[in-house]
Amino acid sequence: MMTASNSWMVSWWEGFGLSSDVPQWVFALLALLFTYCFVVVPAGAALSFLDRKFSADLQARVGPNQAGPAGLFQPIADLLKLLQKGSLTKRPQKASENIWLSVHSMALYSTLAVMPLGSAALLVDTEMSAFLPFWSALVLALGTMLLGLGQNSVPGWFGGIRIAAQTLAGSFPALIALICVGVHAGSFRWSALAGAQGFSPWSWALFSNPFLTIAFLVFIMSGMIVMASAPFDGGLALTDIHGGVASHLYGRRLGYYRFGRFYVFFLWSVITVVLFLGGWALPGRLVSLLREGEAVRVLSFLELSWLMAKTFLLMLFMIWVARVNPRSRVDQITDFAWKVLSPFSLFALVGTSLWVGWGIGWGAPW
């Protein structure tokens, strides 16, 4: 039976139109399938189109315009072409790739349960919520490293080592930046992290104090290092190691690998929005009217739409940074993470702790 403390689960339960005697595992399965099919997959298709259009505009090129009206079906065309590709050589399937796919799948589908998508769309809301998706990024990086090391090739081996070095270097400052926001909000629950902020940009954690502004910049750059996103994609560079860990992937396996990279990018962006950019917070009067009218579905849709809008803007900003900066070497990336981002993250943690402990400007923009 559901309790009053699980009101957010009641909202999901009523949203699916389920009766109270339906097993909770059925409810959880429906919620995960709904999130995957109607949030993650459409987000991947939308970002694929926006990425190509945005990159074409930056480089004064014509973006996709042949597949469907204004090129809207280009992601579908890319997927169909990718599925038709095969290997040039008859290479037997290796057990290491199966291990990577298994680890990848477990990390991918398990973190859907802790993805914050709105006040009425929280399947898991505990003090560990903010750390679980962060941990999934490390698991995915580990799986990618195992994929490279198991290929018995120079590009794969060096790619795996580079991914491991980057992930280790970028994880520490990102974790410290995450702790800064938890100190500010007084909790690591998604509801508390989002509830400590408001609809107005001046009520976001990003502008709450100067130390959280530093933590935001550290978290963004550390995330790009952990995800091996351009320009910090030394482990996946095409010029010197010819594709790295993806050099032997093709067809469905390559598509699955690319979607995994997108998922980490999407997940990290959602986390960043919830931690620093107000999350799904809507104007208080609008929320009160919807709750009084028991319009839970409308409230959930508006919160999800507002969260996705900010997430896509953040992702496009990170793509812009990747397009206008040259690729860095792995040694430059790790040095930047350890010698620049880590000291700044520790400085932000000390500053945030003192700011909160002394009660300076709590809840007000600095």
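(ticket continues) Second input and output from the same batch:
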Amino acid sequence: MRALVATGYGDPEQLTIAELAIPRPGPGQILVKIAASSINPTDLRVITGGYRDLVDLQFPYTLGNEFAGTVTEAGPDVTRFHVGDEIFGLALPRQLRSAADPVRPSLSTGALADYAVFEADTPALGHRPAALGAEQAASLLIAGGTTLAIMDTADISPGESVLVIGATGAVGLTLIPNLATAGAEITATARTTEAADLLRSLGAHHTVGYDDYPTGVDVVLNLALFADGLPAAARSLRPGGRLISIVFPPPEPRQLERDDVKLAFVMHMGDETNGAWAVAEAATAGRLSTPIARRYSLDDGVEAAIDYARRHPLGKIVVTV
């Protein structure tokens, strides 16, 4: 089978489409024929060595977290899924086990491939509703599930001012309409006129650059900054304000250089409240939608990864198989 793999640490230009053996499912596992997958920040950060202090990769390493596809084989003890089921979900490649849910880890052999093996018993996988197309499903779970988790944690009240940093990523583009529905006064970061126009069309009231944050806001949602950018983000908050970050590793209060704000970290793991079932329900009800910027075939998977890394698309990069 074909797979998008890294043969060593390096930039996405060094990825390759390799021929690998089709993996076999063991007890509690399913084999899925992939219909669509997508490129995510984790894919690129892992292969460039960004998580090397947590895991030292063994190569070749197959990329891919989000997917939609068809079950073609079920291993022993699997009762939740059957051959022919259309499913979708989120699963970390097995080598990233340390970052997965410690109780019910959602792991795979890598979803940017013709076939992948997944753990069946996890809320991060679910049946794909007919109303949810494969490409949409393969692009929605991380951004949609993270949006649900942020909205639950942030508990936005109508009229509260919210600064969204990293708003033009997939999470931001999915989150902005939900903040607007909640009645927030939204300021979002944007580097280009095209990005600003898109954010305003989704519900943002104001757009700013990364060096022009407003002050006195109630909530900061950090979707992009690492630790060195947090003090500037925190300075935009009013006393007693809230800063919620999704950027791994979890920030520490001392990194904010303020002790009068509330700090929270959200890491979407695909549990019952924001996993596949919850995301599918919200998407089919019209409450969640993630824009797709461009589509590539698996044969062009290297170009898809380069596009994501170098051209900063406004929306997801989907790879069809």
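Agent notes: The two ends are 11 Å apart (CA to CA). Helices lie at 41-47, 134-154, 170-181, 193-202, 230-235, 276-284, 301-311. Closing as not reproducible unless the customer responds.
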